[in-house]
Design brief:
single chain, 138 residues, alpha+beta
């Protein structure tokens, strides 16, 4: 899996892990001395559940937070999947509610194969990078 940061710098600043997902995402927060444990931030249940094994082929969840994502998903990844005869399902998050209900905490770009989270690396859309990033799981 590819992540933007491993959180070590934040942990040196006093942040602690308050939640984690099986997909490798960790939620770090700065503790507040008098905060109740129940008030700690948590990942949404939809991110905890993910897509599940019933999702087949390549699935992408993305938003317009990055100006390049739409092109790479709808042009590059579409061609990449066609070249490999892979089914592609695209979910564009258009509202705050859709982002909050997403099967991933990474709403800029998340790629799944057969329901399993693979990466947030947008370069996986490119034909020359897909196999290296996704591996043999596709």
């Amino acid at each position: 899996m590819h992540f933007l940061t491993d959180g070590k710098w934040l942990q040196r600043q006093g942040f602690v892990q308050v939640d984690a997902l099986d997909s490798g995402f960790s939620l770090l927060a700065l503790p507040i001395d008098d905060a109740e444990p129940a008030s700690q931030p948590r990942f949404a249940q939809s991110a905890r559940t993910g897509l599940g094994p019933e999702a087949k082929g390549v699935t992408v969840v993305y938003s317009d937070r990055c100006p390049f994502t739409d092109y790479h998903v709808n042009v590059s990844l579409k061609q990449t999947c066609e070249n490999r005869n892979l089914a592609l399902t695209v979910h564009k998050l258009e509202t705050l509610e859709a982002a909050r209900a997403a099967p991933t905490p990474a709403t800029i770009f998340s790629l799944f194969v057969d329901g399993r989270f693979v990466t947030t690396d947008l370069s996986a859309c490119m034909d020359s990078r897909f196999d290296k990033i996704v591996g043999t799981s596709a």
